[in-house]
Write the structure tokens for this entry.
Amino acid sequence: MHFLFAWRYFKSKKSTNAINIIAWTSIVAMIIGTMALILVLSVFNGFEGLVKSLYSTFYTDIKVSAAAGKSITVSQEQLQKLKGLNSVKNFSLVVEEKALVQNGENQSVIYLKGVDENYRYVTGVADNLWNGEYDLGNEEIPKLILGVGVEGALGIVADRNIFSLKIYLPRKSNTDQINPLEDISNDTIRTSAAFQIQQDFDNKYGITNIDFMKKSLKLGANDYTAVEIAAKDPQNTNDIQKAVQQIFGNSYLVQNKYQQNQSLYSVMNTERWVIYGVLCLILVVAAFNMIGALTMLVLEKQKDISVLNALGANRSFIQRIFLSEGMLLALVGGGIGMLLALLIAWLQIKYHLIPLAGGSFLIDYFPVKLRLMDFILVGSTVFVIALIASWLPSTKAASQDFSLRSE
């Protein structure tokens, strides 16, 4: 019954135009706030998904590394147990170290990864070559695959470079106080290709043959930096992580893809909530307009409140009428805002209407990804803000005593 009164007040023409103007201003503000929240969150979802997919190209589902120090010892027994896990698609043995690569006067410090033949099956590097062919060579004649950023810094074209690069690596040995330079390996290497994935990797990484790396670093036969594992079903990563941890023991660090990039995901999650909080201010502005509109409506409907009191309506019923009026304003504004956001997002997904300026990114339009939870979150936020905004005017209406004689 109270909702019917609220609906009638919503449709009826107010005696004061200011009430209509303020009420519709609050609705428009709700529309803009709701639409902005959903669209910005959807664009953020799109960029988040894109960044995660790029990082997933380079990082594997599971990584086994040293809990302390740089290197780990991997036994044949552990490798056999790892092969016996049905949920593991493939794995690669990795040796990683900082290296100085030099081409004449051009030089670059990179993270050099020595990998085995399985590496191309556990990451997407081989599928993201900018030029050349995936070729790591062998221990005696190693080949180097560079990120395109490193390629540019060295001033070469990886698949056309006819000259060898100089590469310097620290050896694993006790430092010779007389001649520390003897602990630095000095080798030459040819490039075979360049990859392009994401700027963080393109500017920092190079990939080469693991046997060459172990020889240069003077590592033992079973010494590695990490074991990188690809899962058959990434949804079962947590179960695989537990099984791998049992194989290697607690002295090894076993991380999933999220844990390998925890700082990145934490920052992205924080940014998401900061954006949400800032855009909620638009809804707060709409709430102030709603308070003004409902307060003026209460003053206008004093006679109606007196009649309802005379007919036996209690204070709770009066309060629910004006609470329902506020919820109705929020429902109209929030509903229209969601529909407009859905329409704009669909058009952007289908037709890429809004371009991404600059032209240097992997895509030339704003990515959008709609999520049901965003609609639920925004709808709940609109409801709570409208409830709080309606509470004060509705309480004021319920607390007033009017008599028909005075009217």
